[in-house]
Write a sequence for this structure.
């Protein structure tokens, strides 16, 4: 019989081949969102469906199952917390999930995602949900079928989809965290609304030349640690980060000449994702150790750089003079205090990706609230616009004037990413807890940021989060890094610490 080392090496070699095949799909998916002409959608759907089927066939092969069966003894692998045991455990989890899905379903989902995203782009441009409804119906039906195939035990159908992005998490657990947190957010939003402080956000409606935005955003992303020798920044209808593997990570953003925060903070956000991808161990590519811990942990990295760093006073003490140089007509005469208050303006808004730190979480909870009945079948896709508008009014006391500012604003449903949204709010909670720990370990982060020194924080994240990959599930990783279970308290401390002062609460 082969030795444990030989059996383990055989498994990891096969996992890396599967990852390589999937990376080919990532390249085609990125191109679809950036440079592919609209006329190529049908052919691209066929390409991606073929690759999805090939990958699924390899990821569910009986031979892979035999390799995993030969590596069941965690003690033989070095103990349950060892890197080898983690790689085998997560490979087995992926294998068991994949084997429950027929190749036909995987290929149909791939085709629906590709064509659905193209339909979403056109529908959003026309502000017309009816033009996308047919694709949403197809995608929801396919995700319902996936949930039934995967199974959800004594839970609810939505659990099967949530687990794909946040391994081990359940709908009930997320509700338990979100409920009290939402109540505190509502109180804070109400207190801010009652304040007589009114930041001048009109200054962001001035002209910010797109080429200057592009250059300024790139410099900021580079300053916080994104390596452009192993990545690039392009434009897309909806900002995203896509990693093709070691040495090739792609960021995208979108520009509006008369709205500076959108592209700038979108770039910082996606750069945070990119820094995580670039920090994963290259030699572990294709295995759990070369993969992010969860989508929530991934979001913690992007939200940390976007908000905890990028919207902080020390960050702008360092960067504001550079911003004035880049945009002299818009910011040349604007005092830093006025600019900083505007960057941290809190008020209900239509667009999630442009929302402030406080109300952003309510945007996520709204989507979480709608996705559950959408998957259970209690909410029909045709009724989504009405349900969205009613729920939005309940959360924000406003009703979206059109579908583009309402239920068509996000790409996720067209891409089949149902169950993904809760990870954004979880990411904020993780980010706050990690950031508190980083400050305790590193000392005066504010002083570092004022001097443009972002490397210490990046290296701390590299050591404590990125280099661990998926050695631990998200909740366990939080405890390993901070010594405490996940709590909303650090995020509430952060929000009150900043906004109680800004709004004189």
């Amino acid at each position: 019989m082969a030795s444990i080392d030989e059996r383990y090496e055989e498994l990891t070699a096969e996992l890396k081949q599967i990852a390589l095949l999937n990376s080919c799909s990532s390249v085609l998916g990125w191109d679809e969102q950036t440079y592919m002409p609209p006329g190529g959608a049908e052919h691209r759907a066929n390409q991606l469906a073929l690759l999805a089927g090939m990958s699924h066939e390899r990821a569910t092969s009986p031979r892979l199952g035999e390799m995993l069966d030969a590596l069941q003894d965690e003690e033989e692998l070095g103990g349950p917390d060892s890197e080898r045991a983690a790689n085998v455990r997560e490979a087995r989890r992926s294998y068991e999930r994949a084997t429950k899905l027929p190749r036909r379903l995987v290929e149909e989902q791939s085709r629906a995602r590709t064509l659905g995203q193209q339909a979403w782009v056109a529908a959003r441009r026309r502000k017309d949900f009816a033009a996308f409804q047919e694709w949403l119906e197809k995608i929801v039906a396919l995700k319902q079928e996936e949930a039934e195939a995967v199974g959800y035990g004594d839970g609810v159908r939505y659990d099967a989809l949530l687990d794909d992005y946040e391994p081990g998490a359940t709908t009930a657990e997320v509700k338990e965290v979100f409920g009290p947190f939402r109540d505190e957010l509502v109180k804070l939003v109400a207190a801010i609304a009652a304040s007589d402080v009114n930041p001048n956000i009109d200054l962001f409606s001035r002209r910010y030349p797109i080429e200057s935005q592009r250059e300024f955003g790139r410099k900021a992303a580079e300053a916080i640690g994104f390596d452009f020798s192993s990545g690039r920044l392009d434009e897309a209808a909806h900002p995203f980060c896509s990693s093709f593997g070691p040495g090739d990570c792609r960021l995208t953003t979108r520009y509006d000449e008369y709205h500076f925060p959108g592209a700038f903070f979108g770039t910082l956000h996606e750069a945070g994702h990119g820094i995580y991808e670039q920090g994963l161990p290259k030699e572990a590519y294709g295995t759990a150790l070369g993969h992010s811990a969860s989508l929530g942990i991934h979001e913690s990295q992007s939200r940390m750089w976007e908000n905890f760093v990028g919207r902080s006073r020390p960050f702008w003490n360092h960067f504001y003079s550079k911003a004035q140089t880049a945009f002299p007509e818009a910011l040349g005469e604007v005092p830093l205090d006025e600019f900083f208050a505007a960057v941290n303006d809190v008020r209900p808004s239509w667009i999630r990706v442009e929302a402030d730190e406080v109300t952003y979480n309510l945007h996520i909870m709204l989507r979480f609230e709608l996705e559950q009945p959408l998957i259970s079948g209690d909410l029909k896709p045709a009724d989504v616009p009405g349900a969205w508008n009613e729920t939005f009014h309940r959360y924000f006391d406003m009703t979206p004037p059109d579908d583009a500012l309402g239920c068509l604003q996000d790409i996720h449903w067209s891409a089949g990413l149902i169950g993904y949204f809760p990870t954004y709010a979880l990411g904020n909670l993780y980010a706050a807890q990690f950031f508190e720990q980083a400050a305790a370990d590193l000392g005066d982060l504010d002083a570092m940021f004022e001097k443009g020194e972002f490397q210490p924080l990046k290296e701390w994240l590299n050591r404590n989060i990125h280099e661990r990959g998926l050695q631990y599930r998200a909740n366990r990783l939080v405890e390993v890094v901070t010594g405490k279970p996940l709590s909303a308290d650090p995020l509430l401390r952060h929000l009150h610490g900043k906004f109680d002062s800004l709004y004189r609460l």
Notes: The chain has two domains: 4-150, 171-502. The mean pLDDT is 96. Residues 221 and 433 are 23 Å apart (CA to CA).
